[in-house]
Amino acid sequence: MKVIVKKNYDEVSKVAAQEMINLVKTKENAVLGLPTGSTPVGMYKNIVRAYKNGEISFKNITTFNLDEYIGLNKSNDQSYYYFMNDNLFSHIDINKDNINIPDGMAKDLDNECKRYEEKLKSEGYMDIMYLGIGINGHIGFNEPDEFFEPLTHKVSLDESTIEANSRFFEKIEDVPTSALTMGIKTIFSAEKIINSHC
Length: 198
Known about the structure:
By secondary structure, the protein is an alpha/beta fold. It has 6 helices and 8 strands.
C-alpha cells in the first residue's frame, strides 16, 4: 500500500485525477470504477479540465459506479446517475452505452444486482477503482458489520449514513434508507484501488 499525503483537498484531487489521466492515456479501453459524494468532485473537475485541454478521450472507456440509492429515478437531482452526469459524463466524450450505474428503480432489485455483477465480469472488472470512506467507515454503501457481502447487493443504510447524507437533501426524511452497492469482493477485484480521504 502506498500512502500519499498532501496539504489540502485541491492537491489530493489533482493526484487522484492524474492517476486516471495516466491510465486513460495508456489504455484507451480502460474500465473505471467511480464514486459519488463530495470527495471526488474536485477530481472530476480536474478530469474534465484535462479532457477540454485535449489531453485525454473517453470514447472507448467503460465506467461502473459503486452504488445508487433505491427509489430515486435518474432525473432526481440526488440520484447518483444525476450526480455523475452533472459532474463528469455530460462534460466528456464518453459513449453513453459504456456508462454503468446500478438501477435503483429496477422492479426486481435482486436480478438487477446479478445483472450488474455479470456486466462487470464481462468487462474483466476494473483497471482502477476510486473509493471514499464514509463517516462510519462504510465503503461504497457496505456498512460496518461482522460480515461483508462479497458481490453487488441491496443494503439498508445505517442511521449514521442517513444522517450524514441528509446534508444533500431538504430534510432527513427525504434521504433513501436503502441502496444497491458493489460488494467488497467486487471492489477488491479491481487492478488498482485509490482511496481519497480528506
